[in-house]
Amino acid sequence: MKIDFDGIQAFVVIAELGGFSKAAEQLHVTQTALTRRLQKLEAYLGLRLLDRTTRYVELTVVGREFLPQAQAIVGDVTRAVNQLKDVSSRRRGNFTLACIPTMASQMLPNAMRRYAKTHPGNRIRIIDASGFEVRDAVLHGHAELGIGLPTERHVELEETLLFEEPYMFFCREEHPLSGKKQIVWSDLHEAELIAISTMSANRVFLDYQLAKRGIKLSGTYEVRHLSTAIGLVAAGVGAAILPNSTLEEGARPGICRIPLTSPTVKRKIVILRKRNSTLSPAARAFFDMVSDQANT
Known about the structure:
43% helix; rod-shaped; WH-like_DNA-bd_sf; LysR family transcriptional regulator; DNA binding; D-Maltodextrin-Binding Protein, domain 2; 8-stranded mixed beta sheet; DNA-binding
């Protein structure tokens, strides 16, 4: 069943203003067009809602009974449309963002503060997850946007580069390599390393980059999360090769963060969205903000 909103709106405005001339002016249509809207509605209903002559317009009995319901319909639709226009123009609303833990604790808070200043009242639901889980959350519609690592290309996903960050060597101050200003990969053959699980996107990327250069490293220990690796480094269990953002300078007294060179390996941080899928206004505003920031 097709609801004739134009006809219902015409009926309500005519009834409220008491005539076709004023109603046509308010709706910005000609009197002829307004008359056709009302006639079409009455024909569809099989009922006359208004009695009209050249001198007056009067509600029929059925019209008087229908008017409150018609006013409610027009009011509800008008409010709903105005709310959507407000959402669109001011980019209001809420959205879900999937994000890898290092970005959730480092880059994301700053981005959220900037976003809150320009879009107060908008809410962001955050799913902190691994790189592969971020990808799947966006792919399956659990999140509109994802901040993570490039993974296996998927035809339904679009990646936009935000920035690159280097992998660093993390160790205790007592470690034999802690006094170096920079470390080359050949220095690490004797080091007891805490490796990230091969199920991690970080490990997959790092192994691939090193393999291209003929470098192969093995860890004495293996963990799943970067935070666990840092905890073991802090406890003096071993050293670790982790992204720069894993730990801010000075955040853990006693831990050194030393650049790795020859070569310097950097991981890319991207923002993901579904290809050919329209973002909500709130998500679009966030996407534009972080993308523009990346390009400055």
